[in-house]
Design goal:
- The protein has 557 residues and is α/β, with parallel strands linked by helices.
- 64% of the residues lie in helices and 8% in strands.
- The protein has 21 helices and 8 strands.
- A 4-stranded antiparallel beta sheet has the order 2-1-4-5, covered by helices on one side. It has a 4-stranded parallel beta sheet with strand order 3-8-7-6, with helices on both faces.
- Strand 7, helix 20 and strand 8 form a beta-alpha-beta unit.
């Protein structure tokens, strides 16, 4: 039976099944019909032995035997339909769970992604969700089916002989005790396995990405990375072995006891017959009872095994729900407005803005000495103008830029767009009004065309080519054998640094926002690439409010 701590988790997991109540009702009806039909053959066997054979009635014998042949065929057809419905519901629930987790994680602020390893996030989305798939897809239906079979079989056994039924169930308390202990152990082992799996995924992501591989090769540390992965992989193997063996001893005990219970039943029935009890079971009763008994033990063993399996899956559901319970810090205000391109003039006003990055919990990281990263900052960028923020690293230039599209929210003061506090504008609408070009350009592992369409999915080829022209990249694209269909590789590593930057500028041009934010967009380029990018930026800035961050005044000039 689920503990008090487990019940809320199970109720929450059950909530993902609610949209499929109709299918679940059909599965329940199929399970009930199948369990009731399963009682027919033992009862027919009793009638065949106690009535048809003693009467030497060949017609009655043929009727009972024929029914015993037809009923399994009908039951098999019902079981096939139930299996299809169960698999469909399970896959739909898994889809909903994955989607809910992905959408929720996407809504988290930048701080979450800065403080959490990418591999850890990926592990929650893939490994943890996959870990509960068997429970979601099969366990619920198996549980319902096993309960229906056990209850209906117990009723039938009791109707035949309640004394033999009591003998059969005498060992049930022992099973429940052993299974509860095994379930708790499985839950703990599953949590440890998933934590190790997340760590292993993070190590693989760090070392096998393009940047990680380049770092390892640059410093000759590939062997050390392999050793680190190998050690964690060995730890995972031991944890998974322990998880696999957890509960197996209970299974062995159950199997041994189940094998011995029929002997107890034969002894009890024989004792009643030898004692001459008038209500002693007949031979047909004993055969039917033992047939039902064998039908009882398999689903009962399945229920005990399911309890252990569900106990292990609770740890995975806890990890998944821990992410779903994270509260997004930056959300739309209740009365937030939606902007259109025609509404925006592009004035950005920073009014007495102060901001500090969140401090890590005590004991979990170094506390920042400076109370505020920004304190009382004010300036106004007029529509269509270029405003430059120049200063050394760590002076807060990029932080100011991040407050405009609400990557972070100011602790005091306000950032306004055309006189409206950005916290009063819907996030999606605000994002559509702002284009960002950073020093670290992020490109999808896809074609040039797909990378550009990310900004404007409905754009035509003519609009794409116009954006490439504006970014001084059209001629270079024409030189490529596959043109716009050229795959840029992981993070765009098939392109040069200048080409990546110009592709990022082309993406912004295709988006056509009224506001442009440039964060050291040319600092990592050689002089030739920088010249090309600056030419592209001049076109991009035309008619837009631009705020640029730079280390040197010469860059701005």
């Amino acid at each position: 039976r689920p503990t008090g701590a487990a019940l809320p988790i199970l109720r929450r997991a059950a909530g993902f099944f609610r949209p499929y109540r109709g299918r679940l009702a059909a599965i329940g009806a199929a399970i009930l019909a199948s369990s009731l039909l399963g009682l027919a053959n033992p009862y027919l066997l009793k009638l065949l032995i106690d009535e048809a054979i003693p009467r030497r009635d060949i017609g009655l014998l043929a009727l009972y035997a024929g029914a015993m042949l037809v009923i399994p065929v009908i039951n098999g057809a019902i079981g096939l339909g139930q299996a299809w419905l169960t698999a469909a519901v399970g896959q739909f629930v898994m889809r909903d769970l994955r989607n809910a987790l992905f959408v929720h994680v996407q809504s988290m602020p930048l701080r979450f992604f800065a403080e959490t390893r990418t591999g850890e996030i990926q592990s929650r989305l893939t490994n943890d969700v996959s870990g509960v798939q068997s429970v979601v897809s099969e366990a619920a239906a198996n549980f319902a089916s096993s309960v229906a079979v056990v209850l209906s079989t117990l009723v039938a056994m009791t109707l035949i002989d309640w004394r033999l039924t009591a003998v059969s169930l005498s060992v049930a308390p022992l099973f429940l005790f052993l299974t509860a202990r095994a379930s708790a152990a499985r839950r703990k082992a599953s949590a440890e396995v998933q934590a190790a799996l997340a760590d292993l995924t993070s190590i693989a992501e760090e070392h096998l990405s393009v940047g990680g591989a380049l770092l390892a090769k640059s410093f000759g540390r590939s062997a050390e990375g392999a050793t680190r992965f190998s050690r964690r992989s060995a730890d995972l193997a031991l944890l998974q072995l322990r998880q696999a063996l957890t509960g197996r001893r209970v299974g062995v005990v159950v199997q041994v006891v189940f094998s011995g219970i029929p002997a107890l039943v034969y002894f009890a029935a024989g004792s009643l017959a030898v004692a001459g009890a008038p209500d002693a079971p007949t031979i047909g009763d004993i055969v039917a009872f033992t047939t039902l008994q064998s039908r009882l033990f398999f689903p009962l063993a399945s229920l005990l095994g399911l309890q252990v399996e569900i106990g292990g899956s609770l740890a995975l559901f806890e990890r998944i729900f821990a992410y779903l319970d994270l509260v997004p810090e930056i959300v739309d205000a209740p009365n937030a407005i939606t902007l259109t391109r025609a509404d925006v003039r592009g004035q950005i006003a920073v009014r007495e803005v102060s901001f500090r990055y969140p401090q890590p919990p005590e004991g979990q990281g170094e506390q920042r000495r400076d109370a505020f990263g920004l304190s009382g900052i004010s300036f106004t960028a007029e529509p269509g103008s270029l405003t430059a923020l120049v200063g050394p690293s760590g002076s807060g230039k990029s932080t100011i830029l991040s407050l405009i599209p609400r990557f972070w929210d100011a602790n005091a003061g306000a950032v306004q767009l055309d006189g409206v506090d950005v916290r009063g504008i819907k996030l999606r609408s605000l994002g559509e009004m702002i284009g960002v070009v950073t020093q670290e350009t992020h490109l999808l592992h896809a074609s040039i065309r797909d990378n550009l369409l990310y900004a404007r999915p409905e754009a035509s080829d003519a609009q794409i080519l116009a954006a490439l022209e504006g970014a001084s990249l059209a001629e270079r694209i024409e030189e490529l054998p596959q043109g716009l269909d050229t795959v840029v590789g992981e993070r765009g590593y098939k392109l040069s640094g200048g080409e990546r930057q110009r592709l990022a500028i082309a993406r912004v041009l295709l988006k056509d926002p009224p506001i442009l934010l440039l964060d050291e967009a040319t600092s990592a380029l050689d002089s030739v690439s920088e010249r090309h990018v600056q030419q592209a930026l001049e076109r991009a800035m035309a008619g837009r409010t631009t705020i640029a961050v730079a280390h040197r005044l010469s860059t701005v000039a």
